[in-house]
Amino acid sequence: MMKIDVPVVKSVDVLLVGGSLEGVKNALEAKAENRSVFCVTPYTYLGDDLCAHFDFQSPKSEAFRYFFGDAECMAPMRIKSALERRFMESGIGFFYQTHPVEPVYDSNGNVAGLLVANRSGFQIIAAKVILDATERSLAARACGVPCKTFVPGKFRVERFVMGKAGHDSEATIEKLPAQFEVEDRKYDVFKVSKEFFFAGNSASDFARAEVGMRRLTWTPELVAASDLCRVDLNDGVADDYCPAPSVPVVIAGRNCGEEINRLLKESVSGEPCCFSGKEECRECDIVRKDSYFRFSDCRTVSYDLNRIPVTQHTEVVVVGGGTGGASAVIAAARSGAKTLCLESLWELGGICTAGRICTYWYGNPVGFTHELDCGIAAMGGNPRFAADSGKAEIEWKKEWLLREADDAGAEIQFGTLAVAAAMKDNVVCGVVCAGPSGVGLVKAGAVIDSTGNADVAAAAGAETRHMAPEEASIQGAGLPPVRPGGHTTNTDYQFICEHDVLDLTRAFVMGRSKFESDFDLVQIADTRERRRIVGDLTLQPQDFYGNRCYSDTVTIARSNFDTHGFIVHPMFMLKPTAHDPHFAKVPFRALLPKGLEGILVTGLGISAHRDCMPLVRMQPDVQNQGYAAGLAAAMAVQGNVPLRGIPMRELQKKLAEKEILPPGVLTETDCLPGPDVSDPHHELAAVFLNPEQWIPVLKKRYAEKQALEDAALLAFLGETDGVSRLEREIEKTPWDEGWNYKGMGQFGASMSPLDTLLFALSAVADSPVYEKKLRDLKPDHAFSHFRAVCRALMRHPHKECAGMLETLLGTPGMAGWAQKNLADTVRANRAEVDDTTVRNSQLKELYLAKALAACDPSNPFAASILKDYADGLQGVYAIFAR
């Protein structure tokens, strides 16, 4: 039995669930009457009744005219931005990508709020009235509101597309009157409709219709389309439903203002304290073992996750249909395994398609990636990009992945988020998903976590890593605009923590504010570094330089160290990386969370030191890695063996036949050939691969030559031989040319030679030289100097340095950069697309505050700054500030 303590994070008069125009209007009207209001929506925006369906030309509703007057045809960005801004101006808070689960009750059995779920876990919103504005009345259904009985039959399904629409003889197609103009090109918009037979109203029934309509409407000329098909199964909330004080659920559009006021006057709801009913009986337990770093001071209500019902069984479930997930789905389904894909967005392909980065940087484009690239190029008669160009049409790639997965027999459920895991002992045997049809447990023989953030593995209790300890180090991220008909738009203007619902919500607000004049904004955070598992084996940077071989290699990646920020590994501090690419073997063990069975992790979530992620995160390699994971999962369920028990040579043989691996890998064992002597990193790599062997050698060499490089290297290895040499060099050397934070295009050094010496010295010793370097530090010095001296003082606090640190922090413009609310977020935008100035200012402020708090733990200035960041909206900084 897995009971969790769920925090009550908000207490309001009205909780809006969903973001339809009618719901947003009702919420604003309630707020205007001094009601407290909060909103949760499964989408990354408001206005989903129009924007999710791409329906901008149907007859305008009263709610539309309330917001936009007589406007005829508006781009989605204008709608989303306007509604978001109205909420912010009125003081209505909101969480994006958050799904309703079930009601929470007071001690008298009255509905007193709602349990919700997102990538951060579960939360409770206490509310006197729940306003349901979701398309399928999810909150109302969860609360037991009476609904019409579903009757199987044929129902008309609609999809809106832009550019050109495909159809068949059974479909009807209507060209709509208004065109969209994007970057001097005009596009027609079409509504396509077709009848589908629905045997039921489950997620699987909707999935079949969704995939069918997507395949039907695709053409090579399509440039944009609806996220979600529209269909009314005539099974909504009963027409005669009347909200009662004990179940105060109001349906958006049904006399909401009157009903809300009546229910608030008659409210009988008390404090939320319990849930109704009993847990299900099953052979496994539903768990959510990872902890969220926020809301620790909130009141909690105990919740038994085993209450969640089983809704589906499959052999392989792939959570995430992105770069690695889509290929895993295809591989598992092609192998004959019953395969289900749960994708949180509305398309396959992830960062490449939904994130609009459809150009390879490096990568090893062999095997499945080669098949994919050739297949995409062959989809149209006159492709814009050749198969070997490293580029692809975004809409073509989405369709190719969908077509291959569907043809192989996989089921794909869009808009569906994994929020918990199912366990039997240490075996992961399913996932809890929340989507357009509600919340339920999918039981599976094997789970592939392709969330890119190890979401399922973390929920199951896997040990994970995010940022480096004691550093705010994470690769820069972006949210680019959507320009239909365009191609890659790569951005890097913020840091994003993907398992922080506040940060994700903030990121989308920032992106829409930044690109408000564009057609739309992507719905996936283009992050380059996320939470990673600690696996059976963890890749280290020196492994690649040492040409390490494995008995279980499943892919061979290729890239350079495109770091999008600063590094933390001593090897790269001592000798920065060059621009040239390297091959990197990735073993199966790096996909296996240590201590867990039944689950594989792909993509950015694999087990690797954060500084070597650039080598293994390229799209061609993640695609091949996902394919390998799909094959492995299918082998496990079909052979009825654990994932660690599959015959590795058989898997590698399949991968060699697919040309993902060269045949020679099949005979390799775990070994370390050693670095190439021609490689500039060869000695450093050898040292970090075998420090015990090298320390005596280095000690002897240092005793003879007193080389500064050896003094620093020994210090990073924990040896104090060169401390005095380092101190002398640091003391006599003035601040040199430092490094300010750079994201896009960052290669090579991210600190100066003097910074490196400070890091080396502080790794093993305290020293008065830290105070001297701090005294010489000026506000306009580069961030790397602040980082170096502050890290030294965080490791070795000097009380006498507190005054100087406080003076620096008090310099005009040095403090006050925390994004405490969404207004701060909007103000932080700059005209430069890939702005780094704000991040530099924030990093300086944070490192100074951390150092000041270390040197003077009772300092109120430091405490105030750290609290602003710890409670602020930026997850990366919130974690670092705690």
- The strand count comes to 28
What is the CATH C level class of the largest domain, in words? Alpha Beta
Count of domain modules: 4
Q: What name does the CATH topology of the largest domain carry?
A: FAD/NAD(P)-binding domain
- Helix count from the secondary structure assignment: 29
Biggest pleated sheet: 8 strands, mixed
Which properties best describe this structure?
18% strand; 8-stranded mixed β-sheet; FAD/NAD(P)-binding domain; single chain; 28 strands; 29 helices; alpha/beta
Could you characterize what this model shows?
This protein is an alpha/beta fold. It contains 29 helices and 28 strands. The strands form 7 sheets. Strands 1, 2, 3, 4, 5, 6, 13 and 15 form an 8-stranded mixed beta sheet that branches. Strands 14, 16, 17, 18, 19, 20, 21 and 28 form an 8-stranded mixed beta sheet that branches. The mean pLDDT is 96.
